Amino acid sequence: MVRVVVVAIVALVARVSGHPGPILDFEADDHHHEQEGDPGSAITGSYGWTSPEGVNFLVRYVADKNGYRVLESNAVPLNADGVYADGTQGSFTSYEDEK
């Protein structure tokens, strides 16, 4: 009986530890930041803030094997090349790639 209980507990811990979930959940008066996923694999999140003028800003992002990408933002809707922040803009390349 004890062996069955131990096996059940070990199986439950293995299942819970392998399941992506909340990583960060922070909220204050004028800003917030939330992340969930599997660290080292794929993270999705959002952060936002209220400017001193009362304007609310939001950034939704993903960080995965393809790098960090903004999916949606009213803070920086276009990059310098005129590409919208929709997750298809790609990630920055590493200086190591240039060698």
From TrEMBL:
Gene Ontology molecular function: structural constituent of chitin-based larval cuticle
Keyword terms: Cuticle, Signal
The organism's taxonomic lineage, starting at the top: Eukaryota, Metazoa, Ecdysozoa, Arthropoda, Crustacea
Endpoints of the signal sequence: 1-18
GO cellular component terms given for this protein: chitin-based extracellular matrix
InterPro entries in alphabetical order: CHIT_BIND_RR_consensus (IPR031311), Cuticle_Struct_Prot (IPR050468), Insect_cuticle (IPR000618)
Ranges for region Disordered: 25-47
Top-rank taxon: Eukaryota
Pfam families: Chitin_bind_4
Protein name in UniProt: Cuticular protein 47Eg-like 1
